[in-house]
Amino acid sequence: MSILFHDSIFGPLKSRRLGISLGVNLLPANGKICTFNCIYCECGWNKKGKPTGTLADKEAVEHALEERLTTLRGTELEPDSITFSGNGEPTLHPQFPAIIDSTIRLRNQYCPKAKVSVLTNGTRVFAPSVFAALQRVDNNIIKLDGGTLHCIDALDQPNIQFNLKAYIDQLKRFNGNLIIQTLFLRGRHNGVTIDNTTDEEVALWLEHLVAIQPKRVMMYVIERETPEQDLEKIDKKELELIAEKVRSLGIETDIYA
Ligand code: SF4
After folding, report:
1. N or C: which end of the chain has fewer CB within 10 A?
2. Residue 4 lies in a domain
3. How far away, in angstroms, is 112 Cα from ligand 1 center?
C-alpha cells in the first residue's frame, strides 16, 4: 500500500533521519508527481498515483504552516525539522523558491531551532532559482542512488533526460553545501537485476562523493512497503562496511537501517 499525504502540512512524524519532522507537501493531495519513478518509492508508481488535483497554493501553504508552528511551539512536538517531501518531487512546484523563503521566515519567527530540510531527487538543480533556494535551506538533501547511469536508470527510472556527468558537475557547484542521500538495495524489476552494493557500483559512487564533497552522506534502506515487491533490504552490517569506505575519504556519513 502506498503512502500519500492529503494535506500540504502533515505530521509531525518521527523521522529516522530528521527527528520530529513537520512535513510540507507542495504536490497534489490525491496523487504523485515526480521526475523519477523509483522502484522503492513509498508513494507508489507514478502512473498508479496520477493526481487529478492541483499543486498546493502558496498562500494556503504559508497559512497552514503558520498555524501548525503556532500550535506546536513550546510543546514536546515542536519540530526539529520542517521537511519538504510529500507526494513526489517538491522542487517541481513553480513557486518552490518563494515558499522556501516564507518557510525560513516563519521558522525564524515561531520555531527558530527547527532546520528547514528539503528531500529532493535533484533533477531540478539545473534551474537557477531552485539551485539558489536549495542553498538557503539548512539541510539540502539530494539523491544519488548509484555509481553508474545504468544503475540509477534501473533504480530511479527517470522520466526526464538524466545525464549523470552533468548532474555530478552541477552538484559540485554547491561547494559542499549539500547532503547526499543514497538508498541501498538489491532486487529485480522487469526482469532486470539491480544491485547498487556491488564493488563496481560502490567504487564509482565513492568517486562521485569525492568529486562532490558533500557535508555528509545519509545511507538508508527500505523501511516500508515498496511498489516493486522483489526487493531485498540490505543488512545493517553490510551498510556499515560501505559507510567505513565513505568515512575513510574524510566524508561524514550516517546509516539508517
Ligand atoms: S524521487 Fe522520491 S518521490 Fe520521486 S519516485 Fe523517487 S522516492 Fe518517489
Report:
1. N
2. no
3. 29
Query: Among 29, 108, 26, 98, which Cα is nearest to 66's?
Result: 108
- Say how far apart CA 207 and CA 224 lie, in whole Å: 30
| Position 21 in a domain | yes
Q: How many domains does the chain have?
A: 1
What are the pLDDT digits (tens) for 104-158?
A: 999 999 999 999 999 999 999 999 999 999 999 999 999 999 999 999 999 999 9
CATH of the domain at 162: 3.20.20.70
Centre of ligand 1 to C-alpha 74, Å, is 33
Assigned domain for 3 exists: no
The C-alpha atoms of residue 118 and residue 186 are separated, in whole angstroms, by: 26
Contacts of 221 (CB under 8 A, 6+ apart): 183, 184, 185, 233, 234, 236, 239, 256, 257
Residue 212 counted as domain residue: yes
41 ligand 1 Cβ < 6 A: yes
Residue range(s) defining the domain that contains residue 36: 9-256
